[in-house]
Amino acid sequence: MVLTGASGFVGSNIAKVLSDVHGDDVITDRVDLFDADAIGRHVASAGADGVIHCAIVNDWDRMLADRHWAWDAYVSSTRAYAEAALGVGAGFVLVSTDWVFDGTQGPATEDEPPNPVNLYGFLKASAELVTLERNGAVARVSGVNGTHWSRPTTPRAQDPGFGYFVASLVAALEAGQPFTVWEADDINMVASPSLASMCGEVMRAILGQDQNGIFHCCGADSVTRRELAYAAADVFDLDRGLLRFAPPPERTPMPIPYDTSLDASATAERLGYPLPGLRELLTAFRTERHKGRVTSFLA
To answer: Is 208 within 8 Å of 222 (Cβ atoms)?
Structure first.
């Protein structure tokens, strides 16, 4: 399996699921995202039966300042990987996002037309079209939490989305320190939480079943940031009294969708697995954190 972005948060979980749970050979060689020829040669020489494209650039300032660079980093790289996979008869999965929606239509189903409100969502929605036109699969992740297996600490405590939220909250409360949950009208306040390792399981199932089209990688429940914070404190047996609630310290450089909750029932039916509830996901995260191993939801 060729996997891009394996050193990132979601990518490190996909790699761990593929290798540790299923014993797959995972090829994570770094390739220049801006070099379509190099991408084509890499996929052709790998001899893999599947490609998961998870790599992104996460520099919002540069994305806004250089739209050509941003387009090539997201859309052109996706086209190159999708065409390379198609050329060797390998399955292709693009890791996409709930931010392809504008934050007003949640819970969005798999066939809901995207309507992004920021450049990141626009680039991901464009990459989705490139993927679907080449008979690939789109795996939209939502409210992703879990363990970052490539680094000992999270790169930030909180962001306008749900990334790193539970890990940072748990780390603070375990140390007896207060944790401030951001609440504001101009950030992502509602989502359908997932566990990054669960997302990896869904993507492997997509490839294993030779599926294409759009899939939603998330659990059964949609929650606010406050609801997720309380649930995490309860599942990890931590003190709710240490939770604080306040607006973020500074505004974000892009508009942020408010409600990005997803409906994954069609995905669950197509792949043949029950959607995990919020507490089931958090319990699995607790196992990851305390025992260093991932839980297979599709086993």
So the answer is: no
State the DSSP code for 19: I
- Domains present along the chain, CATH in parentheses: 2-291 (3.40.50.720)
pLDDT in tens, 232-262: 999 999 999 999 999 999 888 789 999 999 9
Task: Taking the CA atoms of 166, 15, 206 and 283 in sequence, report the sign of the dihedral they define.
Answer: negative
For tokens 């998961």, what's the residue? 52
Is residue 88 within 8 Å of residue 41, measured between CB atoms?
no
Contact (Cβ atoms closer than 8 angstroms) between residue 15 and residue 149:
yes
Please tell me the number of Cα atoms within 13 Å of 262 on its side-chain side: 31
Residue range 126-136: average pLDDT? 98
Rounded to whole angstroms, how far apart are CA atoms 10 and 217? Answer: 12
Q: How far apart are CA 58 and CA 70, in angstroms?
A: 10
Query: Which tokens belong to 152?
Result: 């000992």
- For residues 197 and 282, give the distance between their C-alpha atoms in angstroms, rounded to a whole number: 12
Sequence-separated (6 or more) residues with CB below 8 Å from residue 168? 154, 156, 157, 158, 179
Cα angle value 147/239/197 (rounded, 5°): 15
C-alpha dihedral, 216 to 218 to 224 to 226, nearest 10°:
-160
Please provide residue 39's backbone torsions phi and psi, each rounded to the nearest 5 degrees: -65, -45
Q: 10 Å Cβ neighbour count for 110?
A: 17
Residue 299, pLDDT score: 56
